[in-house]
Amino acid sequence: MIAAPNPSAPDIAVIGGGIVGLWYARVAAQHGARVLLIEKRTIASGASGGMLGALMPHQPTGWNAKKQFQLDGLLSLPGRVEALEAETGLSCGYGRTGRLMPIGHAEKRRQSAQWADGATVHWPDGCAWTVEDANPAPGWLTDAALTHGVNRDTLSARIDPRRLTAALRAALETDDHVTIRENTEVAGIDADGTLTLEDDDTINPGVTIIAAGIGSFPLIDPENPARIGRGVKGQGALLQPAHPIDPLSPILYDKGVYVIAHESGRIAVGSTSEDAFDAPDTTDEKLEAIIAQATALCPALEGATLVERWAGIRPRAEGREPLVGPLPGASSVVLATGGFKISFAIAHLMADAAVGFALGGRPEGLPEAFLPEHRLKRRRHPGT
Length: 384
Ligand SMILES: Cc1cc2nc3c(=O)[nH]c(=O)nc-3n(C[C@H](O)[C@H](O)[C@H](O)COP(=O)(O)OP(=O)(O)OC[C@H]3O[C@@H](n4cnc5c(N)ncnc54)[C@H](O)[C@@H]3O)c2cc1C
Known about the structure:
The chain has helices at 19-30, 65-88, 106-122, 161-173, 216-220, 285-297, 343-358, 372-375, and strands at residues 12-15, 35-38, 54-55, 99-102, 129-132, 150-153, 157-158, 178-181, 186-189, 195-197, 202-203, 207-210, 229-240, 251-254, 257-261, 267-270, 305-317, 323-327, 330-337. It has 384 residues and is α/β, with parallel strands linked by helices. It folds into 2 domains: 12-50 and 162-229 and 319-375, FAD/NAD(P)-binding domain (3-Layer(bba) Sandwich), CATH 3.50.50.60; 96-155 and 230-316, D-Amino Acid Oxidase, subunit A, domain 2 (D-Amino Acid Oxidase, Chain A, domain 2, 2-Layer Sandwich), CATH 3.30.9.10. The termini are far apart. The relative contact order is 0.19. Bound molecules: flavin-adenine dinucleotide.
């Protein structure tokens, strides 16, 4: 029998109940740690509460450790999701749909051939990148977009962010190792790792994992959060098509616009990428432009009913790479944040790595560029 987590002294405190924090809590608990998950609002109420869920690989040229890490994430996620679904009886809406990207000009066609070659070198058997002239999905992708052909890959997939986070939550709620505290904000972290909550209550975890999305940056450097990272707003929409679609239709991606068929039969479209914004959670005419572009790309969206408009703020760490590893100057604090646009593909591996650090190891396979020791100066604590 496992001792229930002592709420004021857990082995591991995870700050933030988004996709990253949820995977951390799960992996830490699977390692036998007593975990306290602290969430300012409610689970998945931040960037992870959206509806896109694209799992798309980087271009397979200029190969580096980050691309390998993301590939490992894409390949290992289905097994992790399958285990979660078996445990909870809940579907996470994963589907290996592949992706189509129309080629708009001759130079891009030349580059596309390089990407196809790169995939044969870097991707495993069963995952292909081809450059095609005929439309592989007539009626789903408009013929008009194929001026110079279309890139097709069979590695891309989609997941339903809300179903996945609901399943992770359900698994955590039935795990004796885990306590979830919602509507609880961590106001600060002392040099010795003590957490101070908004109501001045304190918690003394063995290790703290900061997975608070854009809320991570002020926790890491309260005086100058912008040196750690910033938020990039995104807007998306969920639509009910006028006619039934194949929910395994390939992701369409063109000029920053995604069209994603989901298990529910609905279609998610996105996303804006806004560095400057007034309100974090409002949608505006920029979303109308995205919906119009998506409808021009995907005839199945014609006459679709708008179900929901949504906006969130992606956590983008300075230097663009995620930050994963011990915080310099505070060895009992591990960072896990800044997944930016690819969090859903890599959050479970970020979790493996951060829990590895929390348990005193140095995980293999984590790109050096993700390590805070290479990116951040020693932490300045408030008042020091
Ligand atoms: C429109 C849009 C489309 C996107 N599409 C995709 C996509 O297709 N594929 C993909 O992989 N990614 C996509 N992303 C990015 C992805 O959603 C994010 O990278 C990811 O959700 C970040 O997860 P997170 O757990 O780091 O942060 P969040 O989900 O923001 O979670 C952080 C949590 O921490 C809590 N918190 C903050 N501060 C504190 C504190 N002090 N104390 C306690 N709790 C705190 C917050 O309330 C929040 O719930 C998209 C993002 C947007 C906005």
